[in-house]
Write a structure and sequence with these properties.
The complex is a heterodimer. By secondary structure, chain A is mainly β. Chain A contains one helix and ten strands. In chain B, helix 14 packs parallel to helix 16. Classes of the chains: A mainly beta, B alpha/beta. The structure holds siroheme (SRM), flavin-adenine dinucleotide, iron/sulfur cluster (SF4) and FE2/S2 (inorganic) cluster.
Chain lengths: 110, 811
């Protein structure tokens, strides 16, 4: 399974996110530290809020619509809220962001 | 005897040869080295550069040693090829046959291919030649150096050059120094320490070109900054030097691949050091290389040993900058941070714990316990028992009540232990004061000054009160900003000003924040306080703003946005309405007349925002800031222009006020109204600032509300002219910006400070003038249309997805 180059690391703001559209749904790529990335489904499990617009703090994101907060590592909602979002393999190399597309298709098929 | 050829006389191969000769292994060794010298301690080039050591002191193997072990030295000769079929190594001066071959070529510094990177005077930092070139450049009085790269090597180079008297500037692409080893807080302290030594540090600095006539003269940054330079040291990273292995057909990834015995894909060829790749890992520090050296020496002697990865720790070899980092210090699910900050002494410690094990540590300022923490990480010691006092180090462990509970730990502190670093107050002074009757935090502060300055030892002082007074003491009082700190909003505002804190990192560190970079409650507040206090120095941080303020449009429940252009004072024109209508059709928007006298276009896709803004900009319209904690609308009535009762030009005054105040950020939103007579058609008596025009002039009321609370404005002042209305209103808004708690509307703030205080301050003409002046300084940055700034490239692109792969086949 190959990694797909989706853009430059510097295109994702520090403590922010950008989205990537794929055939199996929209993915949000979060940059939590200078060189730390996470990829998750871009859509909130509560009422489909756009998670890439949420505030990124620590390794968590807070949904902009009603403040559900997710762990970017596990995709689990935190605190009293129950729900989860998919997480995907992502990495950077030489300043480029690489996303594993196969993993997405698999999860979409499953 | 077998013939062993070694390519590269570096730190790794030097260690291999020592092991081999110690064990009297039967090898006849030929040692090639591209550098014109034998093995030396490369990591000690930094003290050579700074003048603290001479080169002779860092040579590890001298001529006598090579003689004694009959090593054929071919120094200053590069190996150009390996012929595996004939089993020979080809050097520049001829070939040598081998039975066993060891590749130890290390790595090569990475040079960014900028324009001018090949000018004389651009050096890397890898070997004695580079070091000598820098020493030579520093000999010229008043000479300047630019170091590109704020990692370990770059900073050691910078410190060395500075010690040699050069003017040094470090350019670092990232937002904090040594981002691979340090978190932001430690990076901030390091920057401060370096600046104290006279080294300039520029973060987020992207180099565009190096220029000069025949040699380096200056460095130009992407933002246009120009720095004079006599020498440029590029220390931006290393690349494994494994080409020679790749050319010979050995299996390579990013470097020469080896197994756990350090054997390459050819059983007679071994590799060691930075030129190898093991299990996907590359290397850049010597500790693992020494392990590799031991393994390869054993393998060469036919003994069994395997190389395994292990935890690494880092220290910076700059005298006086004490930092230590080990393990994985990223935050995460199931991970907990223990943060200790002592701002007065510039100390920061952070431990990262997962499943009752220490997994990472960053220490700055006091690294004495570094090795102890490192041991806990390596050994995966269970720290459950000592968790509460872990951060205080080994001195607090080892049985007794002190190991269990923070209160007991405070009780166990010796009487002379310093509690308040700012004021130098020791435990016994505080205990004495408590004994003499100071039984609250406030009285203690008043009597001893403990915790009265930066306030970060408040917790400790409270614990002392609790320990000394027992149950009769209750903590409490004012509400902290959020769980990340014990300070209140008011404390934070006061300290940002008093201690000249100009960045978020400065706030986190100096005020002892308990989290790494705040949370969604405190970060927007801190961002606002900083930009309100330091409009020219502090750069507004979009990532510390809620979505509406970051995207300059209101998000809707379906993820689309609403777009609301300004209609100054509620006035519009046929042309503006045509442009709005055209945009509404083009972007398929719902159109709503708002309660704020303007028109809302709803349902716009995020991708379309820059385009619709460009269209509205083209018709002369700007953002209405319907999303901001800032000036919203100035509602007006028709006034003397049309109304038979109008006493003044209420529409004109509303427009003037809106043009003066738009764009400014405030603690919460600010709405105004100007009515032409006491009939008050513009509902001015329920606004944050409301003006009622009368025959004799203008009545200014403040602190009204008509949202969750309903409040009538209270009279601030009556004035005679429009200019005075604008002056008073601006002064009121600035006073509110400088003093209110984030998310308090003006009426809430006035309730707290009292209208009398506001009147007192504002009735002094000098004070009003000063407030107006400070407001204008801030407006020189913020009175700009945020839409126009984002409607064009490169900003517009940020509103699109990073990539669209819908057409890519998923495998
Ligand atoms: C569009 C508008 C309603 C309308 O269709 O007329 C509106 C829409 C919203 N108002 Fe409002 N308010 C609008 C006029 C008002 C008014 C009347 C006025 O300004 O004359 C008030 C009462 C006056 C006041 O503020 O004192 C008003 C009091 C509020 C409040 C309560 C504020 C308070 O301090 O009590 C909120 C909640 C908040 O800000 O926290 C709020 C929040 C909102 C938000 C931003 C809710 C949100 O967070 O998403 C709504 C955005 C809708 C959207 O998706 O675009 N809106 N809102 C009005 C825009 C006016 C404009 O041109 O900018
Ligand atoms: C200034 C500085 C400070 C450092 N500080 C630290 C520190 O504090 N802590 C730490 O752990 N690490 C530090 N390092 C890193 C450390 O020095 C390296 O990890 C280590 O030197 C790598 O050893 P090596 O044997 O793999 O390569 P090297 O020591 O680089 O040796 C490789 C040798 O091979 C030679 N060579 C390359 N190609 C050929 C060829 N084709 N033919 C012949 N010869 C060839 C090179 O000339 C070189 O002499 C520092 C490095 C520098 C430059
Ligand atoms: S009154 Fe409530 S529902 Fe209506 S726009 Fe304001 S916030 Fe939204
Ligand atoms: S849609 Fe995300 S919290 Fe409601």
């Amino acid at each position: 399974m190959t990694w797909t180059d989706v853009g430059a690391l510097s295109d994702i703001p520090l403590r922010g996110a950008r989205t990537v559209k794929t055939a199996s749904g929209c993915v949000a790529i979060f940059r939590t530290g200078e060189e730390e990335l996470f990829a998750t489904s871009a859509i909130c499990a509560h009422k489909r809020g756009p998670l890439a617009e949420g505030m990124v703090h620590g390794r968590k994101v807070t949904c902009p619509l009603h403040s559900w907060t997710y762990s970017l590592e596990t995709g689990e909602a935190q605190g009293a809220d129950k729900g989860s979002i998919a997480t995907y393999p992502v990495k950077y190399e030489e300043g480029r962001v690489l996303l594993k597309l196969g993993a997405l298709a698999e999860q979409a098929a499953a | 005897m077998q013939k062993l050829v070694v390519i590269g006389a570096g730190m790794a191969s030097g260690r291999v040869l020592e092991h081999l000769f110690e064990a009297e292994a039967p090898y006849e060794v030929t040692l090639f080295n591209a550098e014109p010298r034998g093995n030396y301690n490369r990591i000690m080039l930094s003290p050579v550069l700074s003048g603290e050591k001479s080169f002779a002191e860092i040579v590890t193997h001298g001529d006598a040693w090579y003689d004694e072990h009959a090593v054929t030295c071919r120094f200053g000769e590069k190996v150009t090829a390996i012929d595996r079929a004939r089993k020979v190594v080809v050097g520049e001066n001829g070939a040598v046959p081998y039975d066993k071959l060891l590749i130890a070529t290390g790595s090569a510094p990475f040079i960014i291919p900028l324009p001018g990177h090949d000018l004389p005077g651009v050096v890397a930092y890898r070997d004695l030649e580079d070091t000598n070139a820098m020493i030579e450049a520093s000999a010229k009085p008043g000479s300047r150096a630019v170091v590109i790269g704020g990692g370990l090597l770059g900073l050691e180079a910078a410190a060395g050059l500075r010690l040699r008297g050069m003017d040094v500037t470090v350019l670092h692409l990232m937002g904090h120094l040594m981002e691979r080893q340090l978190d932001e807080a430690a990076g901030y302290l390091l920057k401060q320490d370096l600046e104290k030594r006279g080294i300039d540090v520029m973060l987020n600095a992207s180099t565009k070109a190096i220029e000069g006539d025949g040699k380096v003269e200056r460095v130009v940054l992407e933002d246009g900054t120009v720095l004079e330079a006599d020498i440029v040291c590029m220390a931006v990273g290393i690349r494994p030097a494994g080409q020679i292995g790749a050319d010979a057909g050995l299996e390579c990834g990013k470097a020469i691949k080896v197994d756990a015995h350090m054997r390459t894909s050819d059983p007679d060829i071994f590799a060691v050091g930075e030129c190898v790749e093991f299990d996907g890992n590359l290397f850049g520090l010597v500790a693992p290389l020494y392990d590799q050296a031991r393994v390869v020496a054993k393998t060469l002697r036919g003994e069994d040993d395997v190389f395994t990865m292990r935890e690494l720790s880092t220290k910076l070899k700059v005298t006086g900058c004490d930092l230590f980092s080990a393990g994985d210090f990223a935050q995460g699910e199931g991970r907990e941070d223990i943060v200790f900050r002592d701002p007065a002494r510039g100390i920061y410690k952070r431990l990262v714990i997962e499943d009752d094990r220490l997994v990472g540590a960053v220490l700055y300022g006091d690294t004495a316990d570094g090795n102890w923490f490192f041991g806990l990480i390596k050994d995966e010691t269970c720290i459950e028992e000592m968790r509460d006092t872990l951060i205080y180090g080994p001195a607090f462990q080892g049985g007794g009540a002190a190991g269990q509970d923070p209160l007991a730990a405070v009780a166990a502190l010796p009487p002379e232990a310093e509690i308040c670093g700012c004021n130098g107050i020791c435990k016994n002074q505080i205990v004495d004061a408590i004994g003499a009757g100071a039984n609250t935090l406030e009285t203690l502060r008043a009597q001893t000054k403990a915790s009265a300055s930066c306030g970060t030892c408040t917790g400790l002082v409270e614990q002392l009160l609790a320990v000394t007074l027992g149950d009769s003491f209750e903590t409490g009082g004012a509400k902290p900003v959020c769980g990340c700190t014990e300070l209140t909003h008011e404390d934070v505002r006061r300290l940002i000003k008093a201690r000249a804190l100009r960045s978020q990192t400065a706030v986190w560190q100096e005020l002892g924040w308990l989290t790494v970079n705040g949370c969604p409650s405190c970060r927007p507040a801190i961002n606002f306080y900083l930009l309100a206090e330091w409009p020219l120095d502090y750069q507004d941080d979009a990532q510390s703003r809620f979505v509406n303020e970051r995207n300059h449009a209101n998000i809707q429940k379906d993820g689309t946005y609403s777009v609301m252009p300004r209609m100054w004072g509620g006035m519009t024109s046929a042309d503006e309405l045509l442009a709005i209508a055209t945009a509404a059709k083009k972007y398929d928007a719902a159109v709503k007349v708002t309660g704020g006298q303007r028109i809302d276009l709803l349902g716009i896709e995020k991708d379309d925002l820059p385009a619709i803004w460009a269209d509205l900009n083209a018709a002369g319209m700007v953002s209405g800031h319907a999303y901001s904690k800032g000036l919203r609308t100035v509602k007006t009535c028709v006034g003397t222009d049309w109304c038979r009762f109008g006493t003044q030009d209420s529409t004109g005054l509303g427009i003037k006020l809106e043009k003066k105040l738009w764009g400014s950020w405030t603690p919460h939103k600010v709405k105004m109204g100007v009515s032409g007579c006491p009939r008050n058609c513009a509902e001015a008596t329920c606004k944050d600032v409301g003006v009622i025009c009368v025959d004799s002039g203008y009545q200014i009321g403040v602190a009204g509300a008509a949202g969750m609370d309903l409040r009538e404005t209270k009279r601030l002042v009556d004035v005679a002219t429009e200019d005075e209305v604008i002056e008073w209103t601006t002064a009121f808004v600035q006073l509110y910006r400088e003093n209110a708690k984030y998310l308090d509307r003006p009426y809430k703030w006035v309730d707290k400070v009292g209208l009398d205080w506001v009147k007192d301050v504002l009735s002094d003409p000098a004070e009003r003038a000063a407030l107006n002046e400070r407001f204008e300084i801030s407006q020189s940055v913020y009175r700009k249309d945020p839409w126009a700034e984002r409607a064009t490239e490169p900003e517009a692109r940020k509103f699109q997805p990073l990539a669209d792969l819908t057409m890519e086949p998923a495998e």
